[in-house]
Amino acid sequence: MVIIMDRKEEFKEVSKAFVYEYKKREDSKQKEVKSLKPKQEKVKVEQKYYVKPLIVQQVLIRKPFEIRLKALDKTLPSTRSDKISPKIPKTILLTSPSIRLKELKKELHSKEREINILIPKSIKLDKVELKLRALNTSIETPKSEEIVESTVESSNESEKHELLEEIDFIEFLLGKGSSKILSGKPLCIIVERHPDKYEYIVATICREVYREKKGTYPQPIPVKTVGDIEFEFKADISDQIIIVENAKYSENLRKVILKFPFSSLGFLILVTDKPEELEMEIRKNIPKAEEYVLRVEPVKIDEKLKISIVEFISGSQLLKSYSFGEDFIKATQMFNDQLERYLDFSKAPNELKVMWHKLMAKSPESSEQASEEHSAMKSFVWQYIWKKHKKIPRLEGERGVDVSIDDENYEIETFYGCGDPIAKLTEKMEKFTQNDKIFFVLRNISILIHLKELISFKKTWKDLGYNVEILGIDLKRKDLIPINKVSSLLKSS
Question: Residues 357-369: what's their mean pLDDT?
Fold first, then answer.
């Protein structure tokens, strides 16, 4: 009988025969082994599986239709069996159209010989192509020169953007709330008796405020008691700065304070050994006096700072020292006295003499004379620029700038009779563009009194792209002092 099979059937039959013979042979071998060995209890051996960890040289790549492992031809050199501690981060979802992997660094510890390798668990990619960079197995240490250079650059950058602290000088010196002196209202100011005689400091600031508001320059008048005010001034402090040296609450004081709402700008300074008690008496017996009463509490500062403040106000070094308050008020007068030398026509340079009419005029369009302080400050600035640039500066040019040379513009301001100092400076900014260098030169006492507002003004215009600087005058060195040095002086105390 002939059996016809196709090749597929034939292959199956041959495979079955082969498997049968193989099993039969293996069974006979096992029987022979069992006959030779003693019988033992069957022990179930748990089969252990060792999974080779995926190292950093293998990256899972998914293409639109297939996933495969691409091995990088790179091995880790090792002389001993290394202990591998894989760290598996959380799954990262990537949705951006292209991804560039950052360089991976292996941290090798020569003593412990441990290799910490970061192994991504899995990365889900949405049709993204990964571009692999070469792995950097070396650890580079930056040179010391690079570290120093980086530190210097960061330091310069922080200095460049360092913002001046807006310090209120009046409150810095006389305590919280004392800036109420600038309000422009008649004010009763209570001061504790002190060896430093702070009443003179208060009187100096009040005089400057009065001149800014009214234009005139009243001198402080000391009296012994409040009764003297009733006799000499008919209980009215309008347009006056009166210092009562032995102040106590009385009916006369009540009459004076009750006139405050109807008075023009003036200041009544009460010096007493018991300032809190006097303030309570006034507020208790004159409820309407609330907005017209101020008690200052001077802040304790060291002697070195007191000297620095007085020297800055005077523009030079004081040779004779009295109390802090007396030195303070004398410094303002010394500043004005020293400025007067710059109005001596016989000592002025010939280049300035031919422009003397412009030096003394208030503005190019007006025949009105400027104040002596303003003209003297203008003369100082002109001579300062003349010596600095070795060229003749312009006085009252086409735009009405006080002193100018090239792209530098110097505006002199005393604030006398201006009302609001910041409004005055803002008005002058209308002359300039962002291409100009603008310097406002002020009296030193004005810089201190309005320090907070002036720093804010400078910051505002700097933020708007203008090159603005505010300067005081150093009469001793014949130089100009930037406002940041004044701020730093107080900040460092």
Answer: 69
